[in-house]
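Q: Structure tokens for this one, please.
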Amino acid sequence: MTDWESLSKQLKSLGVELGKDKRPSQPHVKKYPIDAVVEGQFWDVIYGQVFCHEEHYTKDHLHGNQPIWPAHSIYPLCEWANANPLTKADLGDLIFLDTETSGLAGGTGTYAFEVGVGRFTEDGFRLAQFFMRHPGEEPALLAGLAEFTDGMQAVVTYNGKAFDIPLLNTRYILSGLSSPFEEIDHFDLLPLARRLWRNRLESRTLGTVENRILGVVRDEQEVPGYLIPEIYFEYLKTKDARPLAGVFYHNAIDILSLAGLFSHMAFLLNEPHSDEIAHPEDTAALARFFEAMGDTAQAVALYRSALQENLSSDLYWDTLERFSFLLKRSGDWESAITLWKQAAQAGHLYAFEELAKYYEHHAADLPAAHTYTSQAIATLEHLHLPPYMYQQWLASFNHRLERLNRKLTNR
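A: Here is the predicted structure, written as tokens:
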């Protein structure tokens, strides 16, 4: 017997097993499937099955302090979005949509592993969240989403024109499917939120807007959006769906906030003079909105109201300037001149320029035009402007003053 065989027998007698293929057994890892963590059902679709979690809300449901069911006409929103006119009878054909994705950069490598959608029903609001357990279920998710959105006339998103809808359209193409989001109207509420609340809110992210405008406070289930892709990739490795409960919560709140914002925006555009509008910044913003929409009468009334409210100094003078030019375009020179004189007393150079132009070209009062131009140059010397801006104003006023001097000399 060789020394090796003897050693082997001695080791075996001591309970030691030999062999290069022997490996320590892996500890058993318990799996937590999505349907054990989130209540839902598997929809049978043409490409297999897709998991769907659904919730139903009554017509009088409040999200924060705002109803999700619109109490006002949505026609002004249709005008703003350049969408086909819809009535309250068409509410069920609106789809509220938000995606949770594998990344935030977009491109063909990014996909939506969860898509939340909601739509109004006869008795309330139906929310559905489609989730794919692995990337191979993407065709099934897209098929389920197309089934839910059947009959859709328009989609409502928050930054969806730049991200969600192009992403979904790309995924439908890559899967060889027709996208239900092609050639339909789109209400992207982010641009309108920026227009309405840029002077009141430091940020117009959905989280900020829903909190400050709708009064929504997310609870401890909330998951920060930037962590969501990492949570999903960890789930793919571990098959532990428990952390995804927070992702479903995050997405559901996003959808409800979209509905609440849509309802609140409809209220603002229908009743811009309501006593329920407590912030003067909102009145000024609505004046700018209706001016941009071409509703001069509404804009004039709102500008007048805003200037009677307690606006911050910067916003007050900005609002007064905008209002003065609207009056000028409307031919109401008397009212415009009143505002320009007020602004000139406060040292605003544009007001001196407008007064000088008016008296030179419309009133043919050259001495008055000369006076306002001279006052502008004197005022300019006391303002702390950047050098380039100072030189521009100075050159403009000097040129005007020289022309006025020639005209007065040749009279």
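A few notes: The mean pLDDT is 93. The two ends are 134 Å apart (CA to CA).
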